[in-house]
Structures are given as structure tokens and as C-alpha cells.
Amino acid sequence: MAEAERRLGRWVDRGVALGLVVLAAVVWNSAAAIPPSFLDTGFGADYLPKLLAVVLVVLALTLLAETRNKDAETRTGTEPSTVLDGGLVARCWAIARRPLALAVLLAAFILAIDLGLLGSYPAAALFLFAAGLLLAGVSRRSLLLSAACSLLVTLAVYLLFTQVFTVLLP
Amino acid sequence: MSGELLSSFGDVLSLTPLALIVLGTVLGIVVGAIPGLNGAMLVALSLPLTFGWPPLNAICFLVGEYVGSISGGLISATLLNIPGSPSNLMTTQDAMPMARSGKAGRALQLGILSSFVGGMVSWLALVTLSPPLAAFALSFGPHEYFALVLVALVLISSLNEGSQCRALLSGALGILAALPGLDPVTAQPRLDFGFQAMLGGFDLLAVLVGVFAVSQLLQDAAPARVFERIAVQSSRLQVGLGEFVRHWVNLLRSAVIGTVIGILPGVGGSVGSIVAYSTARSLSKARAKFGKGSEEGVIASETANNATVGGAIIPMITMGIPGSIIDVILIAALTLHNLRPGPLLFNTNPEIVYGFMSSLLVANLVMLAVMLVSIRWLARLMEVPKAYLVPALLVCCVVGTYAVNNRLFDVWVMFAFGLVGLLFKGLRFPLGPFVIGFILAPIAEFNLRAALIAEEGRWASFLERPISLVFVAVAALVLAAPLLRHLGAIRKGSAI
Q1: Who among B169, B218, B445 is closest to A48 (CB)?
Q2: pLDDT tens for residues B389-440?
Q3: Is B415's CB within 8 Å of A169's CB?
Q4: Which domain holds residue B266?
Q5: Which domain holds residue A144?
Q6: Which of A106, A115, A121, A151 to mutate to test the interface with B (most CBs of B within 10 A)?
Q7: For chain B, what is the domain count?
Q8: Residue B319: which residues within 8 A CB-CB, separation 6 or more?
């Protein structure tokens, strides 16, 4: 199972290296589109982005080389080769599920304020309630605690930021 | 200097700064003691609050949080076997076995006293080394500054646990994240992709809160393992002074190691504690006891991690180069108050420089008193339900980030960098080089371009100035070290 995880990690690394090369190309193109300034010294606004694009490509290739070396070590090792199974994916999903769900809730909270669908404080109270239930699980106790926390924290944020620091939230 | 230092003690010991140090230290200890929360997150989250305060008050509060969070991690390391922060990692090796054998109180008290000694030794180093280093840094020109930033990035990449390539990539991506917006020299827009809001670049605070706080809080939402939990039976002092002083060699050695490692740019408490622990183990007569409840192990780890705090502040206030991740946030705090850390700060704002020094000493004393007195109650912090704490802190992130510029764009930036931080953790890319790259990018770019324009593009000019040459040589050696080790191993293998 550990070998399956390592193999998955190496495929992810290959994807990361490819993504970095694409990013470097985007940065280079964007920097090349900057017109030269009237004080052109040859070291203008495009200099560092281009330099960094080259560094990113070199490091992405190094990452690929590291991955290849590890593959070669595995092939020469005595451990039997393993295939990626559904159990590994399920375990990864079990770990990542709640952080991703919380991120989606957080995005919805910010979006609701940004689009003016809700005021900051009602949106915060709703987010606190929903996130509390997400993390604690749905039960009578968690319903009560989430509701209490959402009211108390929203009140505390209102008192601290709006009353003490006079920040006007949208 | 002594006059200015004494007068800064007068400022720091007045009511508001002192109260803020106490509050910051207590908050730091609380956050350090709760597994999953850490000092960088707390300090980043507190930045928006300190925005409107006088700079000295902000420094007192943030330094208190820094010291408290490094020390508070000892509690969960001892009672739960979970390091409260990465710098408490080695403490778990011996503190938990001590706790299991009924010596939880003793392990905690040894850790607290050692943390205090580490903090005091590094404070002495801060007071004595900073003024001459700042005077030396005044001779730096663009070549030296760029080479110094290069060393900082290479050092943090090589001393990080894990792949050097990933750490360098993380640093490069941090620099890249700092580039969008108006070019600092020609004021031309770049990498803005047509978005008007991107012309100002990414707000420093939004990036820091996203990377440190939001990513950590999202990660904390993952289902946690259930850990063995040990209670503290008594808060009575179980370590005699004479008995503690007998460890003076270990204490002094670990404090010096921690301070020196703290001074290295970007390298924080975790490396200091690992090196001090390994050194104590290799020099100990009772080597076999390490990992099974050795008091020497607890002392080495806790002395060194607190000693990195003072050490790390030295390059920050003398050269503007962060000595640790939390120092990146302290630089951001100074920047928010229109102060630029570096050698000139000693002339322009000596009250800030000496404020750092005196608040560090007072925070160490407060930490010692608070932790010794309230250890039994602090141990109960580990029972705080994170299901309700995490959403509340996320709301504080959103409101705090919005409050600085009253722009929702900054809140989206914070969210995006929170996801970037989470992705980095998933891909095993260290976050330290990323934020250090982000904060040092403007210094690096300005000085690189100034040096190359002055020398008509000759890169060799970096090797023609002695200080710059030394920095470049150190960076090259550190980069080449893994390759040299590999070649050495091959040679040894063929010799056998």
C-alpha cells in the first residue's frame, strides 16, 4: 500500500512539473508583451518575470528527474510492483472531503457578501452555523451548539470590528 | 545603546504595552497549546487588529504572541504526543515518555524553565550582536543585498525537511506571486492579465493570512486521529533550582545552537530544536535514554526552539531579512506602520529597534510566570472543540483582511492563497520559502536591476565585491552540497 501511495505521488509530481512548465510559458508570454519603457536599460519590467520563467522550467525538469530516479530505484528494488487501487483513492478522498467542503462554504460566504445577496453579519452567522454542522456532524447537540456559536461569534465580531475598530463591513 | 535600551524598558513597562505583552503571550500560549493552531497563524490573524495601533504597542503584542506560541506547543507535545508547533517536534520524543511514566508535571516544568533560559540567552545575543551587524549592513550596496536575498532563499530551501528542489520551487513561486502589479522602477503594469484590481499587486496581509491561517484552518477540518491524552495531576514545582542548574552545559550549548540557527535567514525553531537535540544525544553519557524519557532531550529541544526567537529577530531588524516564518509577518507589521526594517531603522526609529529587544525580554518573563502558574489549566485547552473554533477563526480572517483596505478583492486573494497553501501542503511543498520569496522579491528585484544597470549587465560584478562574493559562494556551496554528498558516497562505495 505504501508503494502504491508513492507511485501515486510520483504521477502527481509529473503533473505538477507539467503545470509549472505551462505556468512558465504564460509568465514569459505575458512579460514579453510588456512594451519597452522610454528609459529602456535592457533590465525593464519584463526582466525578472522572464528570468523566473527560466528558473521555473529548470526546477520543473529537476523535479521530473527526481521522479524518474525514484522510479528507477523502485524497479531495481525487491518490493513487488503494485497497482493503484480504489482503496487508496477512497482514503485520500476521506481526508480531503471535509477541508474541501469547508473551502466551498467559505467561498459561498465571501460570494454572498460580494454579490450583495446577504449582509456581512447574516452571512457570517449562516456560515458559522453550516460550518459547525459540517465539522461536528448533525445531531441535536451540534445543532444547538452551532446555533449558539454562530450567534455569539457574530455578536463578538460585530462588537470588536464595528464598534471598537469602527470598520464598516458591506 | 544601554541608555536607549533602558529608556525602551521604560516605554514597554508602561501600562498599555505591558498589558499587550501579557495578552499576546497568553494568547500565544493558548494557541500554541491547541494542536493544529500555530504561532504563524495567530500572528498573521492579529495583524489587522494592530493596524491602527502605535507601532510599539503592535510590536509588544506580536512579540508576546511569538514567544507564547513557541512555548505553548510544549504542552500538547508532552500530554498528547502532538507537537503544538513544528519547533516542538523533538520535545515529543522524551516529554511524552516522561508523562507516560507519571512525570508529566516534571517534563512540563523542565520544558518551561529551559524555554526561559533559551529565550534569555538569545535575548543577550540580540542586544549585543544587533548594533554591530546593523553598522556592518550599512556598507551593503545593491550587489550585496541581492546576494544576501539569494543566500536566504537557498538556505531555507536546503535546511528544510524534504526535497531541496520542492523548496526552491516554492521560493520561486513566492517571488512570482509578488510580481503582478506596477513595476517598482518603471511603473509599467505587468502580469495583471487585464484585471484593474491586480494593478496594486496582491496585498501582503491577504497573502499571509491566506497562506498561514486559512490553509491551516482548512487542513484542521480533516478528520483527526484520536490521541492518547495524559492529565497533569499537580502544578506544584517539581524541579529544584540546583537540580536544574546541573544541566547548565546542555542548556548553554542548546541555547547557542538555537540562537545561531535562528540568525540564519528563514530557518526557524524546528531546525534549531532538531540540531540541539541531536547534539545533546551524541554528547550525552546516557545516550540510550534518549527517546525513552530523557530529561536532557526535553531540555535541549525546548531551550533551542525558544533561543531561535531572539536569534531570528537579529537579521530582521539589522538587514530586513526574516530569520523565521513569523519574522516575515513581523516585517509585514512594520511595513503596515510605514517602517522599513534594516540597518537604517537604528537611526530613524531606535525606539522600535529597542522596543523589540525589551519586549522580547518582558515576554519571556511573562511566559515563565504564566506557564508555571497555570500549567494545569493550560493542559485543559486541548479539549477545545475545533468544530466550532475553526469556523469562528475563518470569519475573523475574512473580516480582518477586509478591514485593512476595505476591499473584497483582498478577501478573495486571501481565500485563493489559502487554497494555494493547502495545495502546497498536499504536494509536500514547504510554505516557508514561498512567503520568504514573496516578501523578499521587491528587495531582490530592485537591487538586482540596480546592480545590473550600474554594471551594464555584467553578472560577473557579483563576484568582484568581497561581501557579495562571500554570499554567492555560500549560496553555491549550499546548493551543491547534496551533489557533493552524493559524489562522496559513490567514492566511498567504490573504495569498499
Answers
A1: B445
A2: 889 989 988 988 888 788 899 999 999 999 999 999 888 888 888 888 888 8
A3: no
A4: 2-495
A5: 86-164
A6: A106
A7: 1
A8: B133, B134, B137, B140, B148, B341, B342, B343
